[in-house]
Structures are given as structure tokens and as C-alpha cells.
From TrEMBL:
GO terms for molecular function: DNA binding. It holds the Pfam family HTH_17. Residues 2-50 form the Helix-turn-helix domain. This is Excisionase family DNA binding protein. It comes from the Bacteria.
Amino acid sequence: MLLTVEAAARRLSVSRTTMFRLLKSGDVASVRIGHARRVPAEAITAYIKRLAAEQHAA
């Protein structure tokens, strides 16, 4: 399932600007379909798991 940037931001409870920053940095994976950027739902899950693992290790 692909999410719009806005929907992905809502899932992470962050602003649209923060979501674009995460996409630009590569922290969250995305794909382009034409001119539209979409975020795979799995990319959100992977990002959350990675954050949790990093915070647990610290």
C-alpha cells in the first residue's frame, strides 16, 4: 500500500515539512510515480522499528 506524503506524516504524527525532511535524508523510503511521491506503508513500519532499536541500544 502506498501513502501520500501527508498520510505518511499523519501516521508518524509529524508535520508535512518534517516528513519531507525524512524523505530527503533517506530515513524513510519513498517512490515516485510520475510527479507524485508516495511512501510505502512498510517504510513507515521499518522507520519506527529502526528508531525503537536505536533508542533501546542507547
